[in-house]
Specification:
With 703 residues, the protein is an alpha+beta fold. The chain is 36% helix and 15% strand. The chain contains 21 helices and 18 strands. It has helices at 38-42, 78-84, 87-96, 102-113, 121-126, 135-149, 159-185, 198-207, 218-230, 238-247, 253-264, 272-283, 289-297, 318-334, 340-354, 356-360, 367-378, 385-406, 559-576, 605-615, 670-676, and strands spanning 9-14, 17-24, 32-33, 62-65, 70-73, 76-77, 475-487, 492-498, 502-503, 506-507, 515-520, 535-541, 544-550, 622-634, 643-650, 659-666, 682-687, 695-697.
C-alpha cells in the first residue's frame, strides 16, 4: 500500500463488542478508515449510498479539495496546465505521471496525430444507425466496436498492448465524435489532417466540407483545447468509477471506455451544461431575469439555478475562472454578443457575482455554465456537448483504468447492499396460482446449481447461501406432486410442485402454496428427471413446511415405477379422504396437439403448463380481464367440449387503452364451453403487455 503507514486506529463499537480499524493517510487530503476486514470480523457491512464518504481505490492521478477550490493533475494546478500547456501535454502527464521533455512531447504528439484515422469499415458501421440517432448513442456503440477492429490490443495483461490501446483511443475517439456529428447532420465524413494540432483537427473534422477550404480560427481552437484540458479528469466521479468497475472484471479497454461514455450520457453527470442552456432558454430575455431570481430565492418554489455551484467545490470552481475568460473571448470573436440567450447568460453572471444571496451560498458560475455558452457560440449543437466532454475525458478514463490494472490490490468491484424486502404473509394453499413460496436448498453438493426459481406473483422468502445445507429442525417425510415441468436440453429444468398431500399424517395444504424449483443435470441423473403427474419424496420442516429438500436418492429411476407410485398415492388419498380436493388436473390443448410444435396463444406447450401451474410471473405474464366479443370452433379437436378461438377485448393491466386479441381454449364439456364463450362475458386472462399476442385464459381464477 502506498498510503502512509499510521499507528492511528478507529474503534467501532457494536453492542458490547469493539473492532479496531486501521487508519491510512494519503499524501494530502482526509485520512481513511480501512474497513476491508470489517465484514470478516463482525459480519457487518457499511452503508454509504452514492459512495460519498468511501474511498474505493488509491490513486496518484487527480486531487480535488472542494472546500479550497483546488484541482490538480499529478500535482500540477489546473490553472498552470491550462495557461502554459496544451491538451496533448496534459494527456502525457495523466498517462505517464510527469510532464514531457521537448523530445517526448514531439514523439507523443506524432503518435497521436498519426493514429487519428479509423478503419474504413467504420464508415459502413455508421450506416447502421438512424439519421436522427443521438451522437452519444453512436459513440457508445462505435467505441465499443473498436475492440472488433483492433483486437491486437485487447490483452490487458500485456503492458505494450495496453499502451497501444490507450494511444488509439486518445487519437481515434475525436475522429469518431466528429463522424457522429457529421452523420447526424447528413454531411460526408471529413478525414483528419496530420498537419493540424489536436483541437484544430477536431474543428476541421466537424465543420469542414469537401467543397471548400476550412480556415481554422485560432481563438476557437485555443478555447476548445482549454475545454479539453479542464475536462480531462475529475477524480473518482460516476463515469470514472464505471470505467474502473468495468475494468475490474478484466473487460477489454475499449469496452470499459464505452461503459464510461454510457455513464457520462446521464443528465446528472455529463448533461449539466445542457441543463444550464435549457435554463437560459426558459428565462428567454434579460428583462425576465429579476422574476426568475425571485423564484430561485423563494423557498416554496421548485425553480433551480443550473450551472451555479458544484457538488464537489464548496468554493469557486477553479475551472470556471479559466472558462470565464475563454467564454468572453469566444463571444467577442464570433460576434454572438447580440444572441438573446447569451445576453441572458452574461446578465445572470453579473447578478450571481454581486448578489449577496449567491455570494453567501457560494453559488458561483461553474465550468458547465461557461462551457455550454462557449460551445454554443462555437457552433456545436446541444446534442454534441456531452460528446465533447467524452473526447476530453477519454485520457482521464484511460489513465485511471491503467492505474487500476497495475494496482496489485486490484479486485473485481462488488458493492454490497442493505436488503429490505419484507417476508410475504403466509397464504392459503388453495391460492396456489396466486402465490409461490421459495423452497429450501435442494442438495448439499457444492457444485450444484439448485438455486430456487420463483414463479407466481408474490416472491418468496430469502434463502441461505448457495450450497449451504438446509437446517430442518422438525423433519417429517412426505410427498410433493409435480404439476408442471419444463426441461432444458441436457442442462437444467424447472418444475412446479403442488403440495396437496399428507405429510406424516398432517395435511399441509393450508400452509404451502404451489412452489417452483430448478434442478440440473449435475445433481439429478436424467433418468430421474420428473414429468407432470409424478411425485417426489421430500423431507419437510413441520414447523415451517416452506423449508424442504427433495430426496433425489429415493426417486425411482424407471419412469414406470415413478408413475405407479404416483397412481398409488393418488388413489390412496382419494380413497381415504373423499372430501379432499384431488391433485390438480388442468385440461390443456397441448395434450391433444402433440404433433404440432407451433405456438398456442403465443406460448409453447411447456410455457402454457408453467403459466397454468402458477408460473405466469416468470414468463412475463400479468393478470387482467377480457370481455368476450366472438367465438368460433377450431377443427379438428379431441377435447370433449371442443377447441375454440375466442376474440376478446383485453383490459390493459396498467390502466391504458385496451386491445383486441384472440386466445384459443379447449373445454372438458359443452356446458363449460357455453358459459365461457358467451358474448359479453368476462374472462380472467394472463397477458404479456410487451407482446399482445401472448394471452391465455387463467383457468385457476375461475370461481
Amino acid at each position: 500500500m502506498d498510503a502512509k503507514a499510521s499507528n492511528k486506529t478507529a474503534t467501532l463499537t457494536v453492542g458490547n463488542k469493539n473492532y479496531d480499524l486501521p487508519i491510512h493517510s494519503g499524501s494530502v487530503g482526509p485520512d481513511v478508515i480501512d474497513i476491508g476486514k470489517l465484514y470478516g470480523q463482525s459480519g457487518l457491512f457499511t452503508y454509504d449510498p452514492g459512495f460519498t464518504s468511501t474511498a474505493s481505490c488509491q490513486s496518484k492521478i487527480t486531487y480535488i479539495d472542494g472546500d479550497a477550490g483546488v484541482l490538480e493533475y499529478r500535482g500540477y494546478p489546473i490553472e498552470q496546465l491550462a495557461e502554459n500547456g496544451d491538451f496533448l501535454e496534459t494527456c502525457y502527464l495523466l498517462l505517464y505521471g510527469n510532464l514531457p521533455t521537448a523530445a517526448q512531447k514531439k514523439d507523443f504528439d506524432d503518435r497521436v496525430i498519426h493514429h487519428t484515422m479509423v478503419h474504413e469499415q467504420m464508415a459502413r458501421f455508421f450506416q447502421g444507425f438512424r439519421r436522427d440517432a443521438h451522437p452519444m448513442a453512436v459513440m457508445v456503440a462505435s467505441v465499443g466496436a473498436l475492440a472488433a477492429f483492433y483486437h491486437d490490443s485487447t490483452d490487458i495483461n500485456d503492458p505494450k498492448q495496453r499502451m497501444i490501446a490507450s494511444m488509439r483511443m486518445i487519437a481515434k475517439i475525436p475522429t469518431l465524435a466528429a463522424m457522429a456529428y457529421k452523420y447526424t447532420i447528413g454531411q460526408p465524413f471529413v478525414y483528419p489532417k496530420n498537419s493540424l494540432k489536436f483541437a484544430e483537427n477536431f474543428l476541421h473534422m466537424c465543420f469542414a466540407v469537401p467543397c471548400e477550404e476550412y480556415k481554422i480560427n485560432p481563438v476557437l481552437a485555443d478555447a476548445l483545447d482549454k475545454i479539453f484540458i479542464l475536462h480531462a479528469d475529475h477524480e473518482q466521479n460516476a463515469s470514472t468509477s464505471t470505467v474502473r468497475i468495468a475494468g475490474s472484471s478484466g473487460a477489454n479497454p475499449f469496452a470499459c471506455i464505452a461503459a464510461g461514455i454510457a455513464c457520462l450520457w446521464g443528465p446528472a453527470h455529463g448533461g449539466a451544461n445542457e441543463a444550464a442552456l435549457a435554463m437560459l432558454a426558459e428565462i428567454g430575455s434579460v428583462d425576465k431575469i429579476p422574476e426568475f431570481i425571485a423564484k430561485v430565492k423563494d423557498k416554496n418554489s421548485e425553480v433551480r439555478l443550473m450551472g451555479f455551484g458544484h457538488r464537489v467545490y464548496k468554493n469557486y470552481d477553479p475551472r470556471a475562472k479559466i472558462m470565464q475568460k475563454m467564454c468572453h473571448a469566444v463571444l467577442k470573436e464570433t460576434g454572438h454578443g447580440d444572441d438573446p440567450m447569451l445576453k441572458v447568460a452574461m446578465e445572470l453572471e453579473k447578478i450571481a457575482l454581486s448578489d449577496q444571496y449567491f455570494i453567501d451560498r457560494k453559488l458561483y458560475p461553474n465550468v458547465d455554465f461557461y462551457s455550454g455558452i462557449t460551445l454554443k457560440a462555437m457552433g456545436f449543437p446541444v446534442s454534441m456537448f456531452t460528446v465533447l466532454f467524452a473526447v476530453a475525458r477519454t485520457v482521464g478514463w484511460i489513465s485511471q483504468w491503467s492505474e487500476m490494472i497495475e494496482d496489485p490490490q486490484q479486485k473485481i468491484g462488488r458493492p454490497r447492499q442493505l436488503y429490505t424486502r419484507r417476508h410475504p404473509p403466509r397464504l392459503r394453499g388453495d391460492q396456489g396460482s396466486q402465490v409461490s413460496l421459495q423452497p429450501a436448498r435442494l442438495s448439499k453438493r457444492r457444485h450444484l446449481t439448485m438455486a430456487p426459481f420463483l414463479f407466481g406473483r408474490i416472491p418468496g422468502t430469502a434463502s441461505k447461501a448457495q450450497g449451504e445445507p438446509m437446517r430442518i429442525t422438525n423433519p417429517v417425510e412426505g410427498w410433493l406432486q409435480v404439476a408442471a415441468c419444463s426441461p432444458f436440453p441436457d442442462a437444467a429444468g424447472e418444475m412446479v410442485l403442488y403440495p396437496r398431500c399428507d405429510i406424516d399424517g398432517v395435511v399441509t395444504a393450508e400452509r404451502i402454496a404451489a412452489t417452483a424449483v430448478r434442478y440440473s443435470a449435475y445433481d439429478v441423473p436424467k433418468p430421474k428427471w420428473p414429468r407432470p403427474g409424478t411425485v417426489l419424496p421430500v423431507t419437510l420442516d413441520l414447523a415451517d413446511p416452506t423449508r424442504f429438500r427433495i430426496e433425489w436418492d429415493l426417486v425411482p429411476t424407471e419412469r414406470d415405477a415413478s408413475e405407479r407410485l404416483a397412481e398409488h398415492l393418488r388413489g390412496e388419498q382419494q380413497a381415504d379422504t373423499p372430501s379432499r380436493r384431488p391433485f390438480p388436473g388442468i385440461w390443456r390443448e397441448v395434450e391433444h396437439s402433440a404433433s404440432s410444435p407451433g405456438l398456442v396463444n403465443g406460448l409453447t406447450p411447456q410455457q402454457m403448463e408453467i403459466a397454468l401451474a402458477g408460473g405466469a410471473g416468470a414468463l412475463g405474464l400479468v393478470p387482467t380481464t377480457a370481455k368476450v366479443l366472438t367465438a368460433h370452433e377450431v377443427q379438428p379437436s379431441s377435447a370433449p367440449g371442443g377447441t375454440w378461438d375466442i376474440t376478446v377485448s383485453v383490459s390493459d393491466p396498467s390502466g391504458g387503452p385496451g386491445w383486441e386479441a384472440v386466445t384459443r381454449m379447449s373445454f372438458s364439456s359443452s356446458s363449460r364451453r357455453e358459459s365461457r364463450t358467451a358474448v359479453g362475458g368476462e374472462l380472467p386472462v394472463l397477458v404479456d403487455p410487451d407482446n399482445r399476442n401472448r394471452i391465455i385464459v387463467d383457468v385457476a381464477r375461475f370461481s
